[in-house]
Each structure stands twice: as C-alpha cells, then as structure tokens.
Design goal:
The chain is an all-alpha fold and 459 residues long. It has two domains: 176 residues, no CATH class; 245 residues, no CATH class. The protein has a two-stranded antiparallel ribbon. β1 and β2 form a beta hairpin. The longest helix has 33 residues. It is a multi-pass membrane protein. It comes from Bernardia pulchella. This is Acyl-CoA:lysophosphatidylcholine acyltransferase.
Length: 459
C-alpha cells in the first residue's frame, strides 16, 4: 500500500501526506451521503462526530484530534460557566490557541514544501466554536437590540455536548469549510425548517464534482509553468517590467484553481448530505438552491467588476462569518461602518490564516484595494446617464484595477515570508500598493455631487 501511494503521489506531483489527505478529503462525499440514512437524532450526531474524528486521524494522525479537543472544550466550558461573556471568551481563547498552533507548526512553510498538518481544519473549527458561543451569548439579549442575522442565529438553549461535538466535527465541512451556523446544523439533523422536505441532491452533487475535476485539471496543467520558486530565480529579475507583471498575474491565477478544487469538493460533500440546501427560488416552477454549500463563485472572482465584490465571491462563508462576527459588531450603534472596521476585519482574517508577514501584508493591502474600488464606483455612479461611454469606461477601469491589484497583492499570500513578499512587490515597483493608495487619496479630492452620489448608493 505504501509503494502504491508513493507511485500515485509522484504521478500527480504531491507528497504522500498530501495524497493521504486528499483521499480522506474526497471520502467526505460518501461519508456525508451515509449521514442521511443513519437512524435517530442522537445517532446522527454521534455519526457526525465519530466520522470527523476518524477522517482526521487518517489524514493527520492522533494528535490532530487532541488539538481539536482544546478549543472545543474551552468554548463549551465558557458557555456553561460564563454565559454572559462566553462570546468574547471563546473568541480570545479560540484565536489564542489557533495562533499558538500557527506559531508552533508554521504550516505555511510545510504546505509550500509539500507537507500537511491539521492547522487548516483547526482554522475552520475555531470559527465554528466562536460563532456557537457568540450566538448563545446573543440569546441573553433583547430581540430589539439584535440585527437580523443575530435574531436568526441566536441560541436560547445550550446545545447538548453530543450536538456540539457533532456540529464541530461534522465531516461535510470539517476539513476546509464552508462554515455554517449551529442552528442550521441542529435543524438539518432534526429535519426541521427548510429541511422538512428536501429535494434530491444528486444532480447538484455531480455538478460540483465535475467542477472540482475541471479545476484540478487546470491547476495541474498550469502549476509547472508558474512555480513560486521562479520569484527567487535570477532570470526573473532579468525580465522586463511587463513580463514580471504578467508572471505575477498568472501565478495568482494558477494558485486560485487549487482553492477552487478544494471548495468544490467541500460543496459536493455538503450538498449530498442535504445540509447545503438553502431553500427554493421564487421562479415558476421553483428550483432548489444550494447556496449554503457554496464557498466560491469562480466566474465572479475572475471577472469581478469591483474589488468590493470579491468577499461575496471568494471564500464566501468565511467572509460572511467575518461580517457577522467582526465587521458588524465593531460598528457603534447609529453609525456607519468605515475603513477602520474594514481594516480590523481584514487584520482578523490575516491572523486567522497564520502569522506570516505575507498574510498580514496581503490583507492590509486588500483593505486598501477595496476602498480604492469603492472610490472608482462612486465616480462611476456620479456620471450623468447620457454619458454612457464614459460610464462604461469607468466600469472597465474598475474591473482592470481589481484584477491588477488582486494578482499583484496575492503573491504575498503565496510566498509568505517578508523578504520574498517585498522582493516580489518591488519587482513590479509596488504597483499593487501604490495604485490603491493614490486612488484612495484622490477620493478625498474628487468628490461626486451629493445628490447624484445618494441616488447611486440607493441604486
């Protein structure tokens, strides 16, 4: 078996640990399908927990489950003992333990060298633990004090331990997300709400699997042509500016297909379990929606008209989590969110990903990228309807700006180290940093008329 795995791993260009992870990851699809036939509410929770434990053991070894146990127990203890403060306690303790694991394992280096560990799964688990505790904390508040998302997700009653563990380790999203709410998990298990009668998931599952296969094929084709090691190659420095810029674009483009593959498999896993079901469309006849499982809109990312759209297209469920549990909660009552809330949210996202300078730089720069895109959008909305051509030009400029800055910035997300990130940014004269800053500052100088801007925002 070891020799067979060696040959399989070398055939697709990955290490044996990564191949073992991929096999277990793909196995979440049939394992999730079996969840539907497990009898009884208690049986389903136990199956979710035990299957998650087993797949984690096969993927990462025994120690992975010990790592998962720590934030789970800390989060549950905070809900049992300190309900009025359990949200902030779970946030601090969960992120604290995750940061400690990031510092100890430095997983980014291992991933770059073909290794794998449980830190990625721990990242997903941390968000689940925190959201569960915050929603239980929200159960103490008056309904009129809550936002709509808080009203929808708050918990009045503490989940039992087996319900909580099943939610945390349910294999449908255990390895790579998407993150979902504990209230949805409980209703799905008990076949309540929209899950009382669910449509057949097989057609949507096949679509997600086909999408995963296409994404992996594209990634395997492109990655030999655009290796990250090229950034340290003296030949790269000898290229002209445009060639270096195009290489950075293609490196970012190539890396994204790996994530598209991973999220497509997760989507298939959640859909086939029916947990990915999110209701029916308003069309006639109505069609089933599987948005709860959707973590990426591939065409939406690659052809985004604005950088502000990217959080709605990329790692969708984590972006939603960050909005509900960080961004919205930092906005004082009666005031609007601004750049401070956006920067704090992006910094939280950076720390969640890891302690590498490349992550921090990328997410801070992405906050500038989004603000710059908003400025261009405001200018676009201020153009009178008669000047259609000029308006379309600004739409094109915003799209080109988004693609340029995103693909220049995401190099830091891939190379990780401070030296390599700065060297890569410097090789294209910090275009991805300077352009957003210039546009952001111009937004204070070139301001559209108030009446036109208000109408644009309303639209």
């Amino acid at each position: 078996m070891g020799l067979e795995m060696d040959s399989m791993a070398s055939a697709i260009g990955v290490s044996v640990p990564v191949l073992r992870f991929l096999l277990c990851f793909v196995a979440t699809i049939p394992v999730s399908c079996m969840h539907r036939v497990v009898p009884g509410r208690l049986g389903k929770h136990a199956y979710a927990a035990l299957s998650g434990v087993l797949l984690s053991y096969l993927s990462f070894g025994f120690s992975s489950n010990l790592h998962f146990l720590v934030p789970m127990l800390l989060g549950y203890a905070s809900m049992v003992l300190f309900r009025s403060h359990c949200g902030i306690l779970a946030f601090i303790l969960g992120f604290g333990y995750l940061i400690g694991c990031h510092a100890y394992y430095m997983s980014g280096d291992a991933w770059k060298e073909g290794g794998i560990d449980a830190t990625g799964a721990l990242m997903v688990l941390t968000l689940k633990v925190i959201s569960c505790a915050i929603n239980y904390n929200d159960g103490l508040l008056k309904e009129e004090e809550l936002r709509e998302s808080q009203k929808k997700n708050r918990l009045i009653k503490l989940p039992s331990l087996i319900e909580y563990i099943g939610y945390c380790l349910c294999c449908g999203s255990h390895f790579a997300g998407p993150v979902y709410e504990v209230k949805d998990y409980l209703e799905w298990t008990e076949k309540k709400g929209i899950w009382t009668h669910t449509p057949s998931p097989y057609g949507a599952t096949v679509r997600a699997i086909l999408q995963a296969g296409i994404c992996m094929a594209i990634y395997l084709y492109l990655v030999p042509h655009y290796p990250l090691s090229r950034f340290n190659d003296p030949l790269y420095q000898e290229w002209g500016f445009l060639k270096r810029l195009s290489y950075q674009y293609m490196s970012g483009f190539t890396a994204r297909w790996k994530y598209y593959f991973i999220w497509s498999i997760s989507e298939a896993s959640m859909i086939i379990s029916t947990l990915g079901f999110s209701g029916w469309t308003g069309s006639s006849p109505p069609k089933p929606r599987w948005d709860r499982a959707k973590n990426v809109d591939i065409l939406g990312v690659e052809f985004a008209k604005s950088a502000a759209e990217l959080p709605l297209m990329w790692n969708i469920q984590v972006s939603t989590w960050l909005r509900h549990y960080v961004y919205d909660r930092l906005v004082p009552k009666g005031k609007k969110a601004g750049f401070v809330q956006l920067l704090a949210t992006q910094t939280t996202s950076a720390v969640w990903h890891g302690l590498y300078p490349g992550y921090i730089i990328f997410f801070i720069q992405s906050a500038l990228m989004i603000e710059g895109s908003k400025v261009i959008y405001r200018w676009q909305q201020a153009i009178p309807p008669k000047k259609v051509l000029f308006k379309k030009m600004l739409v094109f400029i915003n799209m080109a700006y988004t693609l340029l800055v995103l693909n220049c910035s995401c190099v830091g997300f891939m190379v990780l180290s401070f030296h390599e990130t700065i060297a890569a940014y410097g090789s294209v004269y910090y275009v991805g940093t300077i352009v957003p800053i210039v546009i952001f500052l111009l937004g204070f100088i070139i301001k559209p008329a108030r009446s036109v801007k208000s109408k644009g925002r309303k639209d």
